[in-house]
Amino acid sequence: MTFSVKRFMAIFQKDVKDLYRNLYISSTALMPLILAVIYSRLGDIPLSMYMLVITLSLALVGTFLQCAMIAEEKEKNTLRGLMLSPATLTEILAGKSAVTIVITVIVTAVSMFIMDFSFTGRGWLIAGIILTLIFFIVLGTWMGLITRSVMEASIYVLPVMLIFGMGNMFMELVDQFRLLQVLEYTPGIQLEQIAEIADTGGSLSQLGKAFAIIGAWVAATLVLTIVTFKKRMMD
Amino acid sequence: MIEVKSLEKIFGKKQALHEVSFQVKKGETFGFLGPSGSGKTTTIKILTGQMRQTAGTANVFGIPATQLNTPEYRKRFGVVTDNSGLYVRLTIYDNLKLYADLYGTSLKRIDEALEAVNLGTEKKTQVAKLSKGMTQRVLLARTLLHQPKLLFLDEPTSALDPANSKHIHNGLKELNRQGTTIFLTTHDMEEADHLCDKVAFLNKGVVQLLDEPKQLKKQYREEIICMELKDGRELEIPLKASSAEEIQQYISREMVERIYTKEPTLGDIFVEVTGRELV
Fold first, then answer.
1. What is the ipTM of this complex?
2. Do B86 and B113 fall into the same domain?
């Protein structure tokens, strides 16, 4: 399988230019920043609050951006053109994912800067964030394949934001609604656990379990995306 | 260049293509003609590897069309369909630059391709501000960037006015003269007559006629000579030796305004063969 850096860069540059002019999509990136500004005004911020903003950034920006970019390519009939060009699917998705990664990382970093959270000495958390970001981007790619327009994508992203992005908030209600216990296995909660374990000096096996759960989510969404793609692109 | 044998495509219970067979030789302009819904776009999708056939073979460049999905093969052909899209927030130049980079062609080709479609002065215009006809021309320019060996055009001038259609036709003729093989689908019979070396009539997924336009017109022409007289009368005289004397009489009496043979258009032939209008 070939991978051309030139073609990857061409798609990356096009998407950056296009996104820059697309206020509807790019304004989504503002939500975690607004939340960060509000939370930064609170006095003592607990770790869970930081993690909520990080997870929300990853879910909202990572998933929605990726999903909306692909959905819009389908809506405007531009994806076929790309698919018929020498660009491979890997190059197309890598170019789009690179844009999503850059914007998500900037939004997350700026949010944490606003909230005065330091990543120094938090290598495990950074590794967890990277793995979780991969999950959200793959999820966004899958959603992009099943949605037909940006409008549809913005509706589909709502449950993702609630379940995966704001799961941390719902965990407070587990005592009342036992069903919410399943949220414990979502990447956002696992990321919070990684942060807690790493900060309190927990064991590697505890960390390993959290990473394995997020890894399983990545693998599952990856399989789902590949199967969906093959089904959608060839009759 | 293209070899199609007994091609079948079935969507659920609907047979879109039935026993379709034809060949397109290198350097030819081949017209695939038929009304909307006759299976033209399905054929292009199969030939460009976007869709699998239900049965039969479709070879392009000597290999099955399903194997065209490598960068090397994709550089050898270009496709313009009636629903191809452009990035509307970007300029014409940015749209073409993306494809120049993807095909690895020089950026100089952007100006040349835009000149070919009469849009040389518009490259900084945002695509959102273009008319449908201009958008169609940008799509054509995008396909011309990498100078493909084989060009698939699905209704390329359907949204263009006569002046721009003529400009595109001249460009396609020039491209063909330079060696590009063109596979054209259209329901514009005049366009097909003007551009194509060979045409196939597709009706309800079946190829009903396949030949050179000149041969078809010869085969289907009416064997009569029409004569318009100075007094306004129009006569139709059978084209046979015994008519010569009658015609000569009109000429010697200086009664003739003009004499012509009655040739059918490809549209007339299509209607005669399929019993269907080209809509």
1. 0.83
2. yes
